[in-house]
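Structure (tokenized):
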């Protein structure tokens, strides 16, 4: 699948823990945010001056994003989320929310 503009295709992942470092994430807040692996990234959007802004997230990286802003799509029978780059809060690094790719829901 080829994404356009600043759209990003993400494979959602479960939460590995309810803590961010020493901060407890309440169960109600976990429904507002999601984490996942970036699968495909569009080339970027254009500014009013015609300059193309390349998206920061790259395929293979894990990100934290606003779940409510995601559009759910099915690709090859797998549920994926499509978001615009501004809906991504951060790029996760090893140690954020446990080990990257590790989940508590048994999906990885």
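Design, position by position:
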């Amino acid at each position: 699948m080829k994404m356009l503009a600043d759209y990003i295709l993400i494979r959602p992942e479960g939460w590995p823990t309810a803590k961010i470092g020493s901060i407890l994430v309440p169960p109600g807040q976990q429904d507002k945010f999601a984490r996942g692996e970036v699968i495909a990234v569009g080339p970027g959007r254009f500014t009013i001056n015609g300059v193309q802004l390349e998206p920061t997230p790259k395929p293979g990286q894990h990100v934290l994003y606003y779940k409510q802003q995601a559009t759910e799509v099915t690709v090859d029978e797998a549920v994926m989320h499509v978001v615009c780059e501004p809906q991504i809060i951060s790029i996760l690094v090893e140690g954020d929310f446990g080990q990257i790719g590790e989940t508590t829901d048994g999906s990885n």
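Reviewer-requested clarification: The CA atoms of residues 18 and 26 lie 7 Å apart. The beta strands are 7-13, 19-20, 23-24, 33-41, 45-46, 52-53, 62-66, 71-75, 78-84, 88-92.
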